[in-house]
Amino acid sequence: MKKYNAFTIAAGLTAFCMIMLFACKKDNGDIKYSQRPASNNLFLSISGTGNLNRTQNLTTLSTTGGTAAVGLNLTKAARVDITASIGVDTNKVANYNAVNGTQFRLLPAAYYDLQAPKNGVTIKAGNLFSTDSVKVNFKNLKGLRASNYLLPVTILSVSGDKSAILSDSVRTVYINLTLSDVKQPVATLTTTSGNLVSLTYPVGAKGAAAVTPITINVSPASPNNLTIGVATDNTKIASYGNGFTAFPDGSYSLSATSITIGSGQSASFNVNIPDLSKFDGTKSYLLPLMITKINGDEYVLNANKIVYVQLSFNNLNNTNNTSAVGSKLLNRQGWVTNATASFDGSFYGASNYVPANAIDGDNSTDWVSNYQNGNESITIDMGTSHQVKTIAYSNAFNNILPQFGIDDYPSSVKVYTSTNGTDWTSQGTYQPVANTGGSAAAPVNNYINFFNAINARYVRLQVGYYKSFTEINVYE
Questions:
Q1: Which of 101, 124, 371, 388 is the most exposed place for a label (fewest CB within 10 A)?
Q2: Torsions phi, psi for 154 (to 5 deg)
Q3: DSSP codes of every residue in 238-296
């Protein structure tokens, strides 16, 4: 048997503060005129059966149905009797949702009774509060399918004391009926890797990209067949992060933009990228996809969840942690190194971790980047240009930084090359295969291989701060 347990009343903060400020004051000669409220405001208050709890801007009534009582209040005592007609204004739900970003439904009339005094709710002359109220009785809640409903109870008209001011901001209380055991169906988009599919191809790649499936799920299941619309929303790119460009017009297609889903089923559509040559290999692209409409069951909510297809290009082939087939290790004699910032170990009784350590052939020395701006790097000038196929680097245990809980092995390496030391080309980001252990006798080795050999005299490895390289070698 279902239990329908809670409804929440969101009355305005203004109304609540007025009650607290003036409920305990008497309007008598001991209070100077300047201390009295400048105007006499009329507003609604609410109470009900069950456990009543008031916080700064929320009144909660815990009940299994029950009754809410809506009364009339003034900030100053009424001069003459004042009477208000109080009822439900169904038009206020849409505006409430628009202002607050909610998806509440109007509570249908079949699920409540409104009991109002025949002649309206009255505050007698000299009083702040009405002695009667409008009763809202909730009933038949088992028939509800949504989990959140809203019932706007408002002051429809006022007669009597002309000095009472009725403000739109406090003339309505919103009764939010929340059914915690009703699980309303929600439609979402997912991919095989969460909300992001990342596609990476070599610079200059042509032909079609791998087909990317996007799945539509509805949970819990709707009893009806649904038609769900999907589309691209490029306005979401800016909020995702910097450095991304929208897919060019005509560079992709969706296998369907209107998908039918049977009751209790899921469905999918594909993102097709027929020709990678339409993309600029120096840029990273982002395709945000969202559900735009749901037809067939008015109770299915849109999760408004975005899934992204990210497309980028690099020239790094990380499939094998060994030097490229047929490559030759270059002689490092005459090579020159420099770095943006190097860690000074002399204060800790060690030598300086200078960039030349990375090409000295000694596994007991290394270069360690010092903190600068998070983009720390080491650059090697090989003296002449080579057709570079592999950049290899090794790590051996550093006995200084681990004392401070610092892992000096790079978690990722951004690779740049240049023929003149001025104009640099990004070749992509390498994710290390081996990233723990190692010693001077047996260092940890990683091999950065290129899909296509790169003509370069200079190589630059960017790693961030407090990261180390024991040795760096290059193969052609």
A1: 101
A2: -140, 160
A3: HHH-TTEEEPPTTS-EES-SEEEE-TT--EEEEEE---GGGS-TTSEEEEEEEEEEEES
Is residue 85 exposed (0-12), middle (13-18) or buried (19+ Cβ within 10 Å)?
Answer: middle
Distance CA 150, CA 102 (A): 10
Amino acid occupying residue 312: S
Start-to-end CA span in the chain (Å) = 74
| Rounded Cα–Cα distance for residues 474 and 456 (Å) | 11
What is the distance between the alpha carbons of residues 413 and 429, in angstroms, rounded to a whole number? 6
What value, to the nearest 5°, has the Cα angle with vertex 414 and ends 410 and 418?
A: 135
Stated pTM of the model: 0.58
Are 285 and 171 contacting, i.e. CB atoms less than 8 angstroms apart?
A: no
DSSP state of 235: G
Cβ neighbourhood burial of 278 (10 Å; 0-12, 13-18, 19+): middle
Q: Give 324-370 pLDDT, tens digit per residue.
A: 888 999 999 999 999 999 988 777 766 778 999 999 999 988 899 99
User: What is the Cα–Cα distance from 103 to 94, expressed in whole angstroms?
Assistant: 9
Token pair of 153 as six digits: 């109870």
Q: Let me know the angle formed at the C-alpha of 43 by 42 and 49, rounded to the nearest 5 degrees.
A: 145
- HSE-CB of 263 using CA atoms within 13 angstroms: 6
